[in-house]
Design goal:
The chain is built from twelve helices and four strands, in the order H-H-H-H-H-E-H-H-H-E-H-H-E-E-H-H. It is α+β, with helices and mostly antiparallel strands. It has two domains: 161 residues, no CATH class; 101 residues, Roll (Chitinase A, domain 3), CATH 3.10.50.40. It has a four-stranded antiparallel beta sheet with strand order 2-1-4-3. It is elongated and about 95 Å long.
Length: 288
């Protein structure tokens, strides 16, 4: 990794500098657009050839490359004429597209930056709680279908619970103690998110509050009632950087990209005089 990119702050300043360079380049191109000269430089030819290569997994032959250049010239002519006629103004689709393309410049630049090992380690330590492994629990359950049992289901579940507690060492068949269940009767090392996905948030919250060992309940889920025994608990823990490197790198680059965009926008705004009709905002805004 490149050691000079020591922090997100350095990274977004670097991206900002590059974006200003791009802006200057585009400004020059816009000035050229006022003339009748179209120059297809080696940069444009290289871009067209590279795009073809990425799409077709081979370089273009001369005839194909000349066709790409002809199409580029055609688009450049039509684009300049459209701008000259003001066709880009007042078109919300074009406006959004141009804004999106400018924002993508930042994203493309951020994707090309490799932070140093020290930068990632620092970022990881500053945000380590974000990557904490959740507590995981293993449990078994007995299911009672309230749609079939009706109001008697609660009492029947409590009766089975009393029997289980009276003979805690007895071998039991969880399937036969209650009703048939469409999912599993036993879950191993499940996170709160995984339990929520299977049974709903209310059930997951209850399971992760239960003391391990011994049958407890009844616990309500989106399916009905359950008697639950927590058989194992894996405590929440913090990972090493190597274990979550992919997540850390993605988060780091996203932060660099977002901060770069904010910095560039703030700098660009300094070049503009912004005037807002505050009265119209008061007139048109929803009153609360």
């Amino acid at each position: 990794m490149k050691g000079w990119l020591a922090s997100p702050a350095v990274a977004f300043l670097f991206i900002g500098a590059l974006l200003f360079g791009v802006q200057a380049f585009l400004s020059d191109r816009a000035a050229d657009g006022d003339s009748n000269r179209i120059e297809v430089t080696a940069t444009e030819v290289g871009f067209l050839a590279d795009r073809w290569t990425r799409q077709w997994n081979r370089p273009p032959i001369e005839r194909e490359l000349r066709g790409l250049v002809d199409d580029y010239i055609r688009q450049e002519v039509l684009f300049r004429e459209a701008v000259g006629l003001g066709l880009d103004r007042g078109d919300e689709v074009i406006r959004r597209r141009l804004v999106q393309k400018f924002e993508l410049l930042t994203e493309d630049l951020a994707a090309q930056l490799e932070p140093s090992d020290a930068a990632l380690q620092t970022y990881f330590q500053e945000n380590i709680e974000r990557y904490r492994y959740p507590e995981r629990r293993s449990f078994r359950h007995v299911y009672f279908n309230l749609d079939q049992r009706g109001e008697a289901g609660v009492a029947e579940a409590e009766a089975v619970l009393a029997d289980l507690r009276a003979s805690p060492n007895a071998v039991t068949n969880d399937r036969e103690l209650g009703d048939p269940f469409m999912l599993s009767y036993e879950y191993r090392a499940s996170s709160p998110q995984e339990v929520t996905r299977e049974f709903g948030a209310r059930f997951a919250d209850a399971v992760f509050e239960l003391e391990p060992g011994g049958w407890q309940g009844p616990v309500l889920s989106s399916y009905g009632l359950h008697l639950v025994i927590v058989t194992d608990v894996e405590e929440s823990s913090l990972p090493d950087l190597d274990e979550v490197m992919g997540y850390v790198l993605t988060d780091y680059q996203r932060e660099v990209r977002e901060r770069a965009q904010e910095e560039v926008l703030a700098s660009l705004l300094e070049r503009y005089e912004v005037e807002i009709d505050e009265a119209s905002i008061q007139d048109r805004a929803l009153r609360r």
